Amino acid sequence: MKVGFLQFNPVFGKKHQNFETVRELIKNNHADLITLPELFNTGYTFLNREELAQLAEPITGGETADFIFSLAQQMNCCLAYGFAEKEGRTFYNSMALVSPQGLIGLYRKAHLYFEEKKLFQPGNTGFKVFEYKEVKLGMLVCYDWIYPEAMRTLAVKGAQIILHAANLVMSYCPDAMITRALENRVFVITADRIGAERRGGKEYTFIGKSQIVSPDGEIIVSVKDEVCVKTVDIDPSAALNKEVNEFNDIMRDRRDDLYFK
Known about the structure:
Structural class: alpha/beta
Distance between the termini: 40 Å
Largest sheet: 6 strands, mixed
Strand content: 25-35%
Oligomer: single chain
Radius of gyration: 18 Å
């Protein structure tokens, strides 16, 4: 399977400009699966819920969902992307997985970071595993990385590839994802954004450093702060082997009888 990530600097509030940037970046790529950053379509720094309400969209029927589905069909590629989701009067920092055939799954960010708590409702989808081309996929959004239980839950449920859409401002995640991949023996694709946003006295600088890590903890591909798309060929079946040696299997050796007692 050829998988990848897209890294760029979204312009706040300019959805169609961000759509065209994404379209231009991936037009010559031939991948099975590409992950886009968190809130790729809107940017990150919402000043209040009123502004969020103007830019958030439902999971289906919105201009972002329509754009992604059209792009997935055009590229014959599955796309995972982060967006501000509107469900009635409730807003979630969400991630969707869309194939050329349509919506596969939705994940709502469980662990909100900093002032996201003023804007979004904590996610209620739980950690579900979805399937594309007979490969099992899990989704996480940004700050979810700091909770090992999140990725472990997906791994226990059989996920082979974790799709991680991010707007990282702390420097720790890229290094930590090596451990997350190794301790669960899964592939991890982190798609981060770059650039800075300064709005209404708020300022965020995003680190980039998108990467793909193997179940052995090897960084297969990584970037710094460039605008780019990177794809690699992987064998997802490698994530089915949980053996460390002839005596140890990281899943069979788990001690559920002792954890959280």
